[in-house]
Amino acid sequence: MSGAAAEPTFIKAVLALGSNLGERNDTLCAAVAELVDRPEVRLRNVSPVVQTKPVGGPSGQPEFLNMVLEIETSLPPYALLEHCQAVENLHLRVREVRWGARTLDVDIITYGGLRSDDERLTLPHPRAAERAFVLCPWALMDPQAVLNGEPVPALAANAPDFAGVDYFADDDGFHVSAES
Ligand SMILES: Nc1ncnc2c1ncn2[C@@H]1O[C@H](COP(=O)(O)OP(=O)(O)OP(=O)(O)O)[C@@H](O)[C@H]1O
Ligand SMILES: Nc1nc2c(c(=O)[nH]1)N=C(CO)CN2
């Protein structure tokens, strides 16, 4: 009998992060570290951070910072969802108003090629294809990305909130350029 345990299968997944309350950039940085701080999750790629006008929800809420990550994970889909929600809870995420302001939101955009209609975990994320706040950072991270058979950069350019997305410069004046 061989003593070597079989290497688990790792599945590529795309996560979208958003924050519009508190120290938004610090929260996103901490969340990336927390999401990948376990052996079942490996970080593959990170998008620039973008500043975005709120889409939906109560009027007058602050602008968001948004970004996306590509990971590979051996967690099954619902375990990945629980992990994402646990990281949201570390940042005292409260759920009071639909699309209301939040310290941290972590959505699963894709999990391999899995498709699911379950309300608890719909895949790909049911609103991602029309959200420039997800598609723009994703296109910057991976210009070849495809969602539902469509190129992500084209979906981004056609999304209704495209004009509300801008690059984000942090307090040190760091500014991500489209050429970087
Ligand atoms: N792909 C997905 N990623 C994350 N949550 C999902 C997904 N599909 C379904 N859900 C469910 O959506 C519920 C509500 O999530 P959440 O409070 O983050 O919504 P929201 O961010 O306000 O709105 P939206 O779903 O439009 O992004 C979660 O409890 C979760 O079970
Ligand atoms: N700009 C922006 N708007 C939103 C966001 C978000 O992350 N960024 N998240 C929402 C619910 O997930 C609803 N609206």
UniProtKB/TrEMBL annotation:
Species in which this protein is naturally found: Arthrobacter terrae
Pfam families on file: HPPK
Keyword annotations from UniProtKB, A to Z: ATP-binding, Folate biosynthesis, Kinase, Nucleotide-binding, Transferase
InterPro entries associated with the record: Hppk, Hppk_sf
Residues covered by the 7,8-dihydro-6-hydroxymethylpterin-pyrophosphokinase domain: 98-109
GO BP annotations listed: folic acid biosynthetic process
Class of this enzyme: transferase
Pathway assigned to this chain's UniProt record: Cofactor biosynthesis; tetrahydrofolate biosynthesis; 2-amino-4-hydroxy-6-hydroxymethyl-7,8-dihydropteridine diphosphate from 7,8-dihydroneopterin triphosphate: step 4/4
Reactions it catalyzes: 6-hydroxymethyl-7,8-dihydropterin + ATP = (7,8-dihydropterin-6-yl)methyl diphosphate + AMP + H(+)
Record keyword Glycoprotein present: no
Protein name as annotated: 2-amino-4-hydroxy-6-hydroxymethyldihydropteridine diphosphokinase
Domain of life of the native organism: Bacteria
Phylogenetic lineage: Bacteria, Bacillati, Actinomycetota, Actinomycetes, Micrococcales
Enzyme Commission number: 2.7.6.3
Kinase found in the keyword field: yes
MF-aspect GO terms: 2-amino-4-hydroxy-6-hydroxymethyldihydropteridine diphosphokinase activity; ATP binding; kinase activity
